[in-house]
Amino acid sequence: MSILSIQKLPWTRLLNTQASKAFAPLPRKAFTSSAQLRLQNRIYTSVRSPDELSSLLLLSSTNRTPLITLWTASWCSSCRTIRPLLLSLIEKEAIGEKEGGVGYAEVKIDSPNIGSVASQYFVNSIPTLLSFRAQEAVLEEKVISLAEMKDKEFMKLWIENEARRGGERGGGGGISTGLFGGLFGLGEKK
Length: 190
Hints:
The chain is α/β, with parallel strands linked by helices.
């Protein structure tokens, strides 16, 4: 019996279909024993001391999410108009969750225990929106314009951008962006 005649037998076709089902790829699942967590925005209580701010910065860095802070005071009427808009965007509309989530806290600069924290982060006016990533203030992205803070579309984009950059960390990154890249002229274009 030749190889060609074996392939034509009915029982070999049955074997081939059963074998193909047995070795078909199975649907893939995540290799984990815990449930998949959905990234969510977090709203924290108001910050009234440097230690509370340090704790929130450490927590947000550990979670690899940016911490968005609204620097405010009890006597600031503009702050009272900005706060509901921010809470609505972050909490109710979940802006930033698709991009990785954000944390939000208000820093009360008129609290008796806060000290000089505002000047440490160059907060010169209130209200001020300041984002922190990896426990560092992102001063380039600070929002001090009241008109921008009242603009809902601007705030949506700002929160989404901050959430997207949440996992970024400093240091490393190749020869042109590394820690000493610019120092030794390695990052210069020729």
